[in-house]
Write a structure and sequence with these properties.
CATH architecture of the largest domain: 3-Layer(aba) Sandwich
Strand order of the largest sheet: 1-2-4-3-7-8-10-11-12-13-26
Oligomer: single chain
Shape: elongated
Structural class: alpha+beta
Radius of gyration: 35 Å
Number of domains: 4
Length: 937
């Protein structure tokens, strides 16, 4: 505690020292509603709500800052202030259809939003605070994120008065962004993240729906995708992290759409195009033509101004391929292009202060001639595994230029072999259920979690073909879009008249079998014209653009699926055969360069050094503590479970578990018993590493248990009921569950688990046809997958009828007979007595009894004898001193021996001429339980 306070004090002192005298320059603002000419079909001017930011000194060059879709001028307030503090006059505005501006959304139409931006340039030319190159020609740059980034490109391509631009996380061709096709019969371009950009693509349904919904009429829409480059969070990391919208206290109002108008704030042509593709799942030519007309690709041949393209590596909306195409097109037009990839994006957040500073440097040089020429190097960020304060480490690789541009060298590509046989995969009726690659609109939330980023992907069995590489002998740093040649054909009796719709993704598979999908990215593609006789069509598929270091001993895995939750897939059932083309290998882009990281100013290093030094000390202490937690007791490496003096206390004095100790050996089926509140669930949660004990320890095969302990992989559990998909078979459910763990299929032991569970042929039936008992047995089989050495079950017979309980009892005994161990928590005392060979009884957090069932039941000295002459037997026993309470029940005679050995009682009966058929303890486990914990419990 003292160390933590010292670190905090030093850090606080350092922050105060660092901020002395560093107050940012003052910025003044002027707001105005500017009337601009309406577009085609509009008879009245359109008013745009604007804010002009004035720096400390004027006149100065100007920068237009455009906002993202669903935002307003308030969304870019912080970015505008930063540029104004750097000395630029900055103009922001709410685009037509957003905020308090009039008009309707035309998706950056040349006659609407782009014409508005040209009108704003006209207005800037008249402002005395703005430097001019000539009459009606202000010195001006333009930047913006996503929707605003596309506006930057469209304006620069139609207005030569723009002197420099810096578009961020935006698109090149909206038709390829929302209806992509990543497969071609030919080859893709030679740049790092080039895509096929073929016709007749696959509708990106989820993202398109988010777009349309955010334009339906509500201003200030909370945008889950960070589509708007939001203000606030001034310390947003360069590695991403979505910032929260600011609250300026100024109300915004957007005109509500006409009652019953399904187009909301969109112009009719956009509304009609969305309705067409959303209802049919395929874009017709009119829809494609509209999207291309509002895309930067329509004007990039005219852009020769210095352009800095910033694109995100965590972006399932506008991937790296979009910036790649823009860079090639501007370079071919003779423009100067600098490309930067950073670790954010629509799924990862806005650029942090360092990258925003680079954008300001770009404008400083090209608008004011200040600073060094930033040139046209290619920079990309590499996110590492080491973590500081919860954030991934990030390094920057800088190459001399972006490969594949006009006059430059093509991208180096390395062949990485993947293997796999031809596989038949099925598109289910309706395209449902569907595989999952990402969660559009929630990507920024997921990417903030180290455990979830890239791990939400699920490839459904029967719908997925896998091709896996060998473990790498050295690190492979992928920088861009890999390509692969595939052969796709139809299956007889299941023709595909519309061609095959497929999805390709590239996984990083660790030595432990855990699969990570970099960037949560997937390439959608359509293979048209498949012959009905099964003749394959060979295509080149461009995989998603990613930046990913594949470490030594990791493997790459290519997966091709028939469905993806984020896309519209064919409703008709179909089957395809997918195979690698002969001698095909993954062609992986590699871009060499100098590695660097952001360096802080020299002055603060002393204070930071002190803090880091204290942090290092704390880290060493933590490492020593972790090593102590991860220690192994060699004497217990063969013992499944040892609990020693385990306690768990909660605030308020509640002690759920109190000095609990017991041991479980191999091959045992141990029952954990106790009334409600006894501490059983708390004990199981500590055993699974879900909560930490207040005192004591748990060792599994000698390893001390803590959160994330590797030995937890040797435990299988069924604690809260399995969530099976009812429309899938039992086997398919198990395969899906195992695939989600990311471990190799050969380690699942499906056949063995199913044999022990005893489901027989029913495993091929849909789970919705199962009885409760069959579901329970399937759940036990799921817990058995991988054949864990220790299986922990909570109420495994819950809801079963007597025959099903009998079957479950056999299942558990057969599993223990393999030499493994089962721990069962149950309230059915009679069943524990018949199923378990050992028992632990808890009450009020304490251990009250432990041992074999026979030992505990026999502990009271009561005995039962099955005899041929009950009356004679009872008379003989009553004549023995110390024997009490002799009763007759049919052929059974019960007696309290009061410490007399059962063998002595047998001798008495034999001497009396009574034939004894059976002798044993009388008491049931229930009797002992009630005696131990009390009738009231």
């Amino acid at each position: 505690m003292a160390t933590a306070l010292l670190v905090a004090a030093v850090a606080a002192a350092g922050i105060v020292w660092l901020n002395r005298g560093d107050e940012p320059p003052p910025v003044q603002t002027r707001e105005a509603l500017l009337p601009l000419p309406g577009g085609p079909g509009e008879t009245a001017p359109v008013s745009l709500d604007t804010t002009l930011y004035l720096p400390e000194r004027t006149p100065a060059p100007a920068v237009l800052v455009a906002h993202g879709f669903g935002g307003s001028k308030l969304s870019v307030d912080a970015d505008a202030r930063e540029l104004a503090q750097r000395g630029f006059v900055v103009l922001t505005w709410s685009a037509r259809g957003f905020g308090r501006s009039g008009g309707r959304i035309a998706l950056n139409s040349p006659d609407h939003e782009v014409a508005d931006a040209r009108g704003l340039v006209d207005w800037l030319a008249k402002q005395p605070e703005v430097v001019r190159d000539g009459e009606n020609d202000p010195k001006v740059g333009v930047t913006g994120g996503s929707y605003g980034g596309a506006l930057s490109l469209l304006l620069a391509g139609t207005d030569k008065r723009v002197d420099a631009l810096a578009p961020v996380i935006t698109y090149n061709d909206l038709s390829q962004a929302l209806v992509p096709n990543s497969a071609t019969l030919g080859e893709v371009a030679g740049s790092p993240s080039a895509n096929a950009f073929a016709d007749d693509g696959v509708f990106k349904r989820s993202w398109a729906g988010i777009f349309f919904a955010s334009g339906m009429g509500a201003a200030g829409l909370a945008n889950p995708s960070s589509e708007a480059t939001e203000a606030g969070d001034e310390e947003a990391r360069d590695s991403g992290g979505a910032a929260a919208p600011i609250d300026t206290g100024r109300p915004e109002r957007m005109p509500t759409p006409d009652d019953g108008n399904p187009c909301g704030r969109f112009v009719e042509s956009v509304c009609r195009a969305y309705a067409q593709v959303a209802t049919t799942g395929r874009a017709d030519q009119a829809t494609i033509d509209l999207m291309r007309s509002v895309s930067p690709s329509s004007v990039t041949k005219n852009i020769t101004q210095p352009t800095m393209l910033v694109q995100g590596e965590q972006d399932t909306l506008f991937g790296l391929d979009q910036a790649d195409a823009t860079a090639r097109q501007i370079s071919a037009a003779g423009g100067k292009v600098k490309v930067v990839w950073y670790t954010g994006g629509h799924d990862g957040g806005k650029p942090g202060p360092g990258l925003r500073g680079e954008i300001a440097d770009w404008f400083d040089f090209h608008l004011r001639g200040l600073g060094d020429d930033p040139g046209t190097p290619f920079e990309y960020a590499v996110q590492g595994a080491l973590r500081a304060q919860g954030a991934p480490s990030v390094r920057t690789v800088t190459a001399s230029g972006y490969p594949g541009l006009t006059g430059g060298a093509a991208t180096e590509r390395r062949s990485v072999r993947v293997d796999g046989v031809a596989q038949t995969i099925v598109n289910p009726p309706g395209g449902n259920p569907a595989s999952i690659s990402s969660m559009p609109g929630l990507g920024s939330v997921i990417s903030g979690s180290a455990r979830l980023a890239g791990r939400v992907a699920i490839d459904l069995p029967g719908q997925s073909a896998r091709f896996t590489g060998l473990p790498l002998e050295q690190q492979l740093l992928i920088a861009g879009a890999s390509t692969v040649r595939l052969r796709v054909s139809t299956v007889p009796n299941l023709p595909a008249p519309d061609g095959a719709v497929l999805f390709a993704k590239l996984y990083d598979v660790g030595p432990d079998g855990v699969r990570t999908l970099p960037g949560s990215a997937v390439s959608a593609f359509r293979v048209p014209g498949l012959p009905t006789d099964g003749t394959p069509v060979e295509v080149t598929v461009a995989l998603p653009g990613i930046v990913r270091p594949i470490e030594t001993d990791h493997r790459v895995e290519l997966v091709v699926t028939t469905t993806d939750q984020a896309y519209a897939t064919p409703a008709r059932a179909a089957a395809y055969k997918v195979e690698l083309a002969p001698d095909s290998a993954l062609q992986v882009p590699v871009v060499a360069g100098a590695r660097s990281s952001s360096a802080p100013p020299a002055g603060p290093l002393i204070g930071i050094g002190v803090v880091l030094g204290l942090g290092l000390i704390a880290g060493i202490v933590g490492m020593i503590r972790r090593r102590r937690e991860d220690d192994v007791d060699p004497a217990l490496t063969e013992v499944p479970l040892v609990i020693e003096n385990l306690s768990k206390s909660y605030p308020g004095g509640l002690r759920a578990v109190d000095s609990l100790s017991f041991r479980v050996d191999r091959g045992q089926v141990l029952g954990l018993l106790g009334p409600n509140g006894a501490g059983k669930t708390t004990t199981l949660r500590m055993l699974m590493g879900l909560i930490s004990p207040s005192d004591g320890q748990i060792r599994v095969f000698g390893h001390k248990i803590h959160s994330g302990a590797p030995v937890l992989s040797r435990i299988g559990s069924f604690v809260e009921g399995a969530g099976f998909l009812p429309h899938l078979s039992g086997r398919a459910n198990l395969e899906l569950y195992w695939a989600a763990t990311g471990r190799p299929v050969e380690r699942a032991h499906f056949a063995e688990a199913l044999e022990i569970a005893g489901l027989g042929n029913a495993v091929e039936r849909k789970v919705r046809t199962y009885s409760q008992g069959m579901r329970q047995r399937l759940a036990i089989a799921q817990a058995m997958l991988g054949f864990p050495d220790l299986m922990v079950l909570d109420e495994p017979t819950n809801g079963l009828d007597p025959p099903q309980i009998h079957q479950m009892r056999d299942v558990l005994r057969r599993y223990a007979a393999t030499g493994r161990t089962v721990l069962v928590s149950s309230h059915l005392l009679a069943e524990v007595e018949q199923t378990c060979d050992h028992v632990v009884v808890m009450h009020r957090g304490k251990l009250v009894a432990a041992g074999s069932v026979d030992e505990i039941v026999a502990g009271g000295g009561e005995a039962t004898f099955r005899v041929d002459d009950p009356e004679s037997a009872a008379e003989a026993l009553r004549g023995v001193t110390g024997i009490n309470a002799v009763t007759v029940e049919g052929s059974l005679v019960h007696a309290d021996l009061d410490g007399l050995p059962r063998s002595a009682a047998l001798s008495v009966l034999v001497k009396a001429g009574v034939a004894v058929e059976q002798a044993g303890p009388r008491r049931r486990l229930e009797d002992v339980f009630l005696e131990l914990v009390g009738e009231g419990s």
